[in-house]
């Protein structure tokens, strides 16, 4: 069965479940595989959380017409932000070793010590820990897979919004 032909609620439910499954795997990788997340990883998790919540609320609400576009826009905004963070992360991972920035303090310490604007600047600048590739699947690092998922889930939200079928 073609997922592009599924009803709106099923498409958004699948999108939300995919987001939470990705978050579940991130927690599994952290606590069972010992892959501690860097600050950029944590921001990518927040983007998936935002997407997942927007998808699930859309599935529960089941709007028609322009209401679908509100949810698609919300999911897309989280997806674009997450994709930009993942892109930056991938860029850091592909820097030559001599250009990798020095490791910085952890995100929790930065949030407690610095103003929020400086914390965000430091996080997006990246640090040496963000450049480390300690997990791969089919030749892609975790941020690369996140980028793939951000694009796919954003497209799913747009396809769901363009469907001319009943909300149910």
Automatic annotation (TrEMBL):
Residues 1-11, 64-69, 164-168 are cytoplasmic. It is a multi-pass membrane protein. InterPro entries: DiS_bond_form_DsbB/BdbC (IPR003752), Disulphide_bond_form_DsbB (IPR022920), DsbB (IPR050183), DsbB-like_sf (IPR023380). It is found in: Cell inner membrane; Cell membrane. It comes from the Bacteria. The chain crosses the membrane at residues 44-62, 69-90, 142-162. Residues 29-46 are periplasmic. Keywords: Cell inner membrane, Cell membrane, Chaperone, Disulfide bond, Electron transport, Membrane, Oxidoreductase, Redox-active center, Transmembrane, Transmembrane helix, Transport. Gene3D superfamilies: DsbB-like. SUPFAM superfamilies: DsbB-like. Disulfide bonds join 38-41. HAMAP family: DsbB. Belongs to the DsbB family. Required for disulfide bond formation in some periplasmic proteins. Acts by oxidizing the DsbA protein. This is Disulfide bond formation protein B. It comes from Tahibacter amnicola.
């Amino acid at each position: 069965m073609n997922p592009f032909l599924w009803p709106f609620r099923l498409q958004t439910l699948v999108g939300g479940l995919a987001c939470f499954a990705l978050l579940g795997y991130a927690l599994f990788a952290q606590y069972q595989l010992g892959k501690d997340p860097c600050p950029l990883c944590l921001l990518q998790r927040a983007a998936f959380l935002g997407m997942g919540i927007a998808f699930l609320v859309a599935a529960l609400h089941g709007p028609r017409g322009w209401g679908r576009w509100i949810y698609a826009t919300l999911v897309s905004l989280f997806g674009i932000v997450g994709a930009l963070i993942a892109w930056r992360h991938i860029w850091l991972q592909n820097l030559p070793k001599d250009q990798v920035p020095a490791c910085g303090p952890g995100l929790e310490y930065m949030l407690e010590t610095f103003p929020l604007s400086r914390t965000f600047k430091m996080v997006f600048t990246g640090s040496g820990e963000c450049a480390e590739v300690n997990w791969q699947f089919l030749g892609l690092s975790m941020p690369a897979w996140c980028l793939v998922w951000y694009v796919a889930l954003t497209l799913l939200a747009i396809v769901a919004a363009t469907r001319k079928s009943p909300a149910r």
